[in-house]
Amino acid sequence: MVTGWQPTTATERALLAAAEADDREGFLTELVTGQLLLPVSAGAAAGREPVAWPTGHHDGVTHVVAYTSPAAIAAALPGQSVSYRVSGLVDLAVDWPDDGWMLAIDAGLPIAVRLTADELRTLAAPTLEAERPLREAILRQDPNALMSVLLRAELVVPLRPDGPATRDVSDPEFPWWSLPDEQGRVSLPVFTSEARLRQALGDHDLVVVSSLQLTDHWPDISWQLLLNPETPLAAALPGEALLTLRDWLGELRQVVTEAAEQEQRRRTTAAYADPSTVGVPVPRSAPEPVDDEGRDPDVPLRLQMVIPHRYLPSYLDDGYDRAAGLVHAWHGPGRDTPIRLYRRLGLLGAGSPFEESDEWVAVLRWPPGETTPDEWGQGQPRMESLVVPDATELHCLHADGRDELLARFDATARRWSPP
Predict the structure, then answer these.
(1) FRET partner for 142 with CA separation of 20 to 30 A, picked from 206, 262, 264, 342?
(2) pTM above the 0.70 mark?
(3) CATH class of the domain comprising 141-243
(4) Percentage of the chain lying above the pLDDT 90 cut
């Protein structure tokens, strides 16, 4: 056991406190979120040879050695000049080379721990699941999927050292920390978690913001966003992409606000209904005859369902993936408006969430799949309850005939993404 060692990082201080309190759960939690340094050869550090796993042998078992800080390396390997690469426990679990190997962290120090491959994967599992959509988007090099992940993510922004004290991103004096990338372009580092920031930067002052706050106050369109730099989950987005996301979020916010205001007006009107009619059931009228052109035979069959205004935020904000209502055939471009739909489907009447004066209405629209019953979309509308199929589109039908695509459903990530 090394003597005279003292922790030099916040992670090491937390690990030592947990070890002294015999708090293994707290110890492992800190370990998952901290950075790990893996020694590499001088040739690998200079790029002259491949990076190999740093291994040693103990009790006949191969161990991968890692440390929690440069000071920990210096204490455990005194007098040696050691190059290293920075990683995290989760990334080690993804790339772990051999189920028979163990991970030895800070060997010889008071915070030393050994983990089997199974223990490593168990510790990493929650973070791996949370990061799965991001990891898949980066592996596929899919910018749309990446934007979808960022849409509802909390983002961690490191602050410029010695900058102004403000932590408000709307403040013109906010200490944005911009750095040049390898090509010299001004870039803003942003991380998807505090653990990812610590993996790249160690202990660093930061603020946590929503994607909406970040896009609303992006400092310069010429700057690019560097996501999780110096980690395996790194990606870059130009400033123009952030502005596209900001514009879509702004439109979405306006739609949701209008929906909430319209629902409030409807409820206020209902609160002052004729007292003589309160509690008296009113028969729903049959669908009104409507003079329309019917479904366009030249357009592939698409199924459609009307969504009450008040439910729209549940889909867009919370990733809601259930629907109940009248399944019917979409008639084709330019053939549906709110009032035409209401009359054709019989959606007007006492207690209905829809009104003739509605300026717009949201609909779900999707192609029939292999398991879709043949009678859906044929003949009269059918009352159904269903799980929203993958790639279902959420449209806004306007009273002037415009058909606006708002979002598309990703069943794997369970989120609605910008088109």
Answers:
(1) 206
(2) no
(3) alpha beta
(4) 46
